[in-house]
Amino acid sequence: MPVTEIYFKDWCPYSQRALQLLDAKGVDYTAIDVTNDGDKELEMRARAGRTSVPQIFVDDRHLGGFDDINALDRAGELDPILAGAANEEAA
Fold first, then answer.
1. Which end of the chain is more exposed for a tag (fewer CB within 10 A), N or C?
2. Rounded CA gap, 70 and 38, in Å?
3. 19-78 pLDDT per residue, tens
4. At what angle do helices 66-74 and 13-24 cross, to 10 degrees?
5. What are the φ and ψ backbone dihedral angles of 54, each rounded to 5 degrees?
6. Residue 27: how many CA atoms within 13 Å on its side-chain side?
7. Which helix (H) or strand (E) holds 28?
């Protein structure tokens, strides 16, 4: 299974929606709360090249924020990524 990470802030509605979507998909993920952690937020910004939350990564592949993963889900592309199929095809 791929490693899924989500950087989020506890007060952010988009973060909550992204967490809910991942939960609904049954994904095991590492949630990294950057609400009061400047070092982790800087890490997120360096990895994502973005300042907004949430930021989601699957096997170090940056998927973007909630709008991005929601669009992937609507297009039927999110489940294969979360299952690791995209990484297996590239190998």
1. C
2. 27
3. 999 999 999 999 999 999 999 999 999 999 999 999 999 999 999 999 999 999 999 999
4. 40
5. -80, 165
6. 27
7. none
The angle formed by the CA atoms of residues 17, 11 and 68, to the nearest 5 degrees, is 35
Q: Write out the two tokens for 48.
A: 């994502």
- Amino acid, res. 70: N
Cα–Cα distance between 81 and 58 in angstroms, integer? 8
State both tokens at 25: 């998909």
Question: Dihedral sign, CA of 6, 28, 22, 63?
Answer: positive
Cβ pair 47, 55 in contact under 8 A? yes
